[in-house]
Amino acid sequence: MTEVSLTDVSTYLPGEPISADYYAQFAGSDELRDNLMFRAPRFRHHVGPDESAIDMVEHAAQGLIERHGRDVIEHIDVLITHTQMPDMPFYGAGGGIAHRLGMRPSWVLDLHNGGCAAFVLGLNVARKLLSSGEGRTALIAIAQNAAGQVFDQPGVRRMAQAAVPGDGAAVGLVTLSDQSPILDVECRTYGEYAGDMTLAIDPPRKWWQPGRGEGCIGFTETKITKVLARGNRQVPEVALAVCDRIGLASRDVDLLVTNQPNRVFLRNWREALEIPPERHRDTFDECGNLFGAGIPINLDRAISDGQINAGDVVLMAAFAHAGDFAGAAAMRWGGRG
Asked: What is the structure's pLDDT at 166?
């Protein structure tokens, strides 16, 4: 296979940080309030009231434009996007992002099934397309915009689940090169769990029907137990599969980057992979659960802070929704040239 690299990432966090006190003032009686899944981060960011997913991605792309030039972005061959809350329910943001950034890509793919593992899925798709001759460059664009739109609804913000998510966006530049080669990718679909993540509205109605009541994630103690068990198993499984194929023990990777649903998962994953906290990058207390944007935002922080150096192996892993998808990828970082 022709070598394909994750050449660079660039990110965006909307607005000023919002502290845990913001949600504490609204907190109501919630039987799940003491559940470990919903221990609030110190801060998170919220998308603006009139800020679209396309706006967020445009902001996130500025770092790439500054470092690589607008010409590189305008001549992207493959555009892969994932938006947690599409601005329009009938289509994704790919077309609008392409137009806003001045692109004329041959491929525009909006991925909805990747969820919190969307960046890994995007890497897998980009790698396959570029190595098979479908172009020389790809852009992966992720927008997480549910915190300020769904979880900050007046009725939802009283719930324990509302204080955990945060908003942010990220883009990854993938190129046909050996600069920062993607060493391996593992993606697995667990179709038996599809549909276990549900939208709860009181009184019940379909999400598109008019009526009273605001939509939130349908969590119960039983569902949480199942999701914890699946996530604890799936992320190490896909990560170890990648490590096995590249011939490197998980404890020897230089940096682990995962999605960050809560502190419990972060601790359990690094313990399962035998990676110390200082080599597992997260921004949970600064940004909350960033869903699909978590991996690229944390990777960008690690690069910018000098936490990884040229030649270091980065392992990325995540699971999605209630456990219906998981993915892992490894790359050898070549530095920001």
From this structure: 98
**DSSP at 41:** P
The DSSP string of 243-305 is: HHHHT--GGG-SEEEE--S-HHHHHHHHHHTT--GGGEE--HHHH-B-GGGHHHHHHHHHHHT
DSSP element (H, E) containing 110? strand 107-110
Nearest to 186 by CA among 127, 112, 115: 127
Q: Shortest CA distance to 314 belongs to which of 243, 244, 253?
A: 253
Tell me the pTM.
0.97
Q: How far apart are CA 269 and CA 294, in angstroms?
A: 15
Classify burial at 257, counting beta carbons within 10 Å of its beta carbon; exposed 0-12, middle 13-18, buried 19 or more: buried
**What's residue 35's pLDDT?**
86
Pair 239, 273: CB distance under 8 Å: yes
Q: If we measure between CA atoms, which residue out of 316, 313, 337, 336 comes closest to residue 326?
A: 316
Mean pLDDT of the chain: 96
Domains and CATH numbers, the chain: 4-178 (3.40.47.10), 183-191+219-333 (3.40.47.10)
pLDDT above 90 for 2:
no
**3-state SS assignment for residue 81:** strand
* SS3 call for 37: helix
CA distances from 314 to 73, 182, 327 (A): 24, 10, 14
Give the integer Cα–Cα distance in Å for 137 and 272. Answer: 35
Question: b/e string for 159-185 if b means 16 or more Cβ within 10 A?
Answer: bbbbbbbbbbbbbbbbbbbebbbbbbb
Residues 6+ apart with CB under 8 A from 104: 74, 98
Q: Is 216 left (phi over 0), alpha (psi -120 to 50) or beta?
A: beta
Q: Which helix (H) or strand (E) holds 44?
A: strand 43-44
How is residue 203 written in tokens? 């009184």
Residue 61: Cβ within 10 Å count: 24
